[in-house]
What does this fold into?
Amino acid sequence: MRRSSVRVRTLSTAAVYVVLGFVVVAALVVSTGAGLGDALSGWFVGAFGNGYNLVQTLSNATPLALVAVGVAIALRANVITVGAEGQMIVGAIFATGVSLWLGDSVALPIGLLLGALAGIVGGALWALPAALAKVRWNVNEILFTLLANYIATYQLVFLLRTVLRDPTSAGSPQSAELPGAFVLFQLPLPGRLHFGAVIVVVIVAAAVWWNASRSAFLVDVYGQRPILAARLGLTPARAVIGTMLVSGAAAGLAGWMQVAGVTQRLEPDVSGGIGFAGLAVAVLGRGNPVGIVIAAIVYASLGTGASGVQIATGTVPTSIGTVSQGVLLLAAALALSADKLAARSAARSAARSGVRSGAEQRAKEVSA
Amino acid sequence: MSTLDFLAVLVAGAIGLCAPIIVAGLGEIFLERTGGFNVGIEGIMLMGAVGGVLGSHVAGVWFGVLLGILIGAVFGLLLGVATAVGHADVIIVGIAIGLIGTGLSIFLYQALNPAGSTNARVETQPALHLPLIDQVPVIGPGLADAGIFFYLSLALVVLSWWVLRGTRFGLRLRVVGDDEQVAMTRGIAVRRYRIVAAVIAGAFAGLGGAFVPLSSIGTFSPGITGGSGFIALAVVIIARRTPFGLLAGAVLFSFFNSLALLGQTQNLGLPVELLQALPYIVTLVVLCVVSRHLWARARRGHTHPRAPATGTTEIEGSL
It folds into this structure.
């Protein structure tokens, strides 16, 4: 009973924070001279209003969800990676390189498999130095991955100017189009959503299954009590390197999907800002794969909806989308900590009145 | 161009580029000394940059600088209150503030500069030429024309060093970060110090951001700070949170950045992208070397070593 009242209270604090946040966003909208109603309906039309826009939102949510599932796994081990941007770029480079190199010599399913594999390898390889540096020398992984993102970006620009450059395109730097066997087919929907979305759904299902496994539990233990985890057979090196490789692989796979499914060629803006977005979505989804999918769609809808807001009002710039993403994340961070504090104080008062503490209760639920 | 001339140009470029990193890093030092961390630094710098251009447009360059500081302080207050009072996770709050700052800076820029209108140049820092010093080889010309912002940031380095080392405020700030329990038993208002440090960090980041457009460009463009905030974060760790170490690290980074800029106009025999990536590569390598050294010392030394990789040792104070 006590726990459920805590639940209700945290849900209402979360709601208060979200409402407060969107009052700020609304004030911004109104300050440009736009009507609030116009902006709201514009947002809805832009994000979900018709088949094409809905599919665009889902298409943007696809790489976000995939990256966030990987980031969430590292987060469980207390590893905070913002390297998805660079890992996605390197995954995309590897996938493009393999596709253009093999060309028309392979058939359809094999081409896709090889492309995906190359993406995974590229993403994981780009995550490896950060993981090793953390394990060996205790290098802050946030800073390492942030800096590595810049290095990956310049690497991409270099390759698109030289080896990977499409010789027939005179204008913007981009690679040649991928051969047919390496291109992900589109789902029969209005707008463009590639088959990768289905792959992401399968991966999310796999993540749900993995979450209940012993190794997931061990990673959780590592996140809380590293020494205990080592006694249970999970050493710090394996925990950090393993989780970072998985998150890198997920980001690399997302890089392959953007190339093989969305643009069909490698372009300089393959990863646009996904480093922080992936972490944000993982946090908003509270590390739960299904929650992450919902969070990814909401997060993506703020971006696609912003275009709708601009069209509907004419005065509100699309960057209102980024602002509302940040506001949402801030509200979530405050609500999360309110949740934790409430649970802790409930546990304390329960312990004081001689009832078994909520923490113990929770521990029991976990081990059951 | 002779080698000496070439070096002089490089050094002049480095001196011209380092002020924003130094200033933003100083704020970060105050914050990290209390156990905080500001991943949103880049977004706050962007807000400082847009505020600087707006303020300069309205009432001249110094008003722009002031506006940048004020906007940064507001964002710092948000960071401080959310983490110290709301007990929210510093990293998540930092990312949120980074997103808000980045988005809002573009929002303001686009709202005030509708597409198609020309991007008016605003007043930038007044010209400053120091006599005599330009006779010194290699570094002389750069120092003579370094500009007021560079000398202002040098003054702030000295000021910060003194505040942290020689004042009661600085001592208390450090106690809050080193041992919260001791701070509390000594009657230090821990929460208040954390908030004040966050406001200082925000104000400095805003000032650093305002320096970017106001030093010579005179206009804002989305993403104009180009990662200097993140570089400041790395340099602060490399410098072990000391103001003079920060100065050295910022100059080192800016030196390679200056090389990259030079490589865009002259053929230096290397791909331009490699030159552009070089500052980040150098920072990364130095970060690894310093972390390795600190880690080895922590394991040897008197401080109880923490298990590797539980969180981020450098910053875990308030995680």
